[in-house]
Design a protein that fits this description.
- The protein has about 230 residues and is α+β, with helices and mostly antiparallel strands.
- The strands form 2 sheets. A 5-stranded antiparallel β-sheet has the order 3-2-7-1-8, covered by helices on one side.
- Strand 4 and strand 5 form a beta hairpin.
- The chain starts with 9 loop residues before the first helix and ends in a 16-residue tail after the last strand.
């Protein structure tokens, strides 16, 4: 707070809130893995893989914290801060567009093919990918139509087979394309008792392919809010 002065700016408060959120997420993840009874019987190579996953997440969070601290210094540097603020605003707009699904994205990631599963298994997969740092993703069915997956996305079993994703009916096999750190996401999916093990035990199948570049091309129309307004 001293770095932001006696009257903290909204940007400074946002940065502090994000730093606290990153720290809280890391602590929750560590406690979750520490309290998992299934790890007591895990093989040594599985434990090593889980440890590697946690270290990769910690490294990613430290990098994000460093970037936020740099932005904080630039935004509070006087005249130069105005240009930094404009650049930060443009960057933030692009990031929000990716999160909202209104712009396409590209980067390193995973391509997953899941078959023989219900909506709950796809939802579990999406949640695990998000927890492992998956930033942008889409899902496509056998017909090739892709649906952008965002925070408000829902998955429901369709009558006669298939899954309804945000109103669109898809049939398997389902192809999930997700942007993030490939090794971290794959490790998260393959932990003992995780997504891959659950799908296989239920009679389904999952194939994973790490790629240096994937493209998420499905986009959504921007939503116009009718009632919600900023609080400040």
């Amino acid at each position: 707070m001293r770095a932001l002065g006696r009257r903290p700016t909204p940007a400074g408060l946002l940065i502090l809130a994000l730093l606290a959120l990153f720290g809280f997420t890391l602590v929750v993840q560590l406690r979750s893995n520490d309290g998992d009874d299934g790890l007591a019987s895990a093989r040594q190579e599985d434990l090593v893989r889980i440890l590697s996953d946690l270290e990769a997440r910690d490294s990613r969070l430290q990098s994000e914290i460093g970037a936020l601290e740099t932005s904080q210094r630039q935004l509070t540097s006087g005249v130069a801060g105005r240009q930094a603020a404009l650049a930060e605003a443009d960057k933030r707009a692009d990031e929000l567009g990716l999160l909202a699904g209104t712009v396409a994205g590209r980067g390193p990631g995973l391509r997953l093919v899941i078959d023989g599963v219900k909506a709950s298994a796809i939802l579990n997969t999406v949640q695990e990918l998000r927890g492992a740092g998956g930033e942008v993703m889409q899902i496509a069915g056998a017909g090739g139509r892709a649906v952008r997956v965002v925070a408000s996305s829902y998955f429901v079993d369709a009558e006669g087979g298939g899954v309804i994703v945000d109103g669109d009916r898809l049939t398997g096999p389902y192809v999930l394309t997700v942007i993030g750190v490939p090794q971290v996401m794959q490790t998260a999916l393959q932990i003992p008792g995780g997504v891959v093990a659950s799908v296989n035990s239920g009679g389904g199948s999952v194939t994973l392919e790490q790629r240096t570049l994937v493209e998420v091309t499905a986009v959504r129309d921007a939503t116009t809010l009718q009632y919600a307004r900023p609080a400040s």
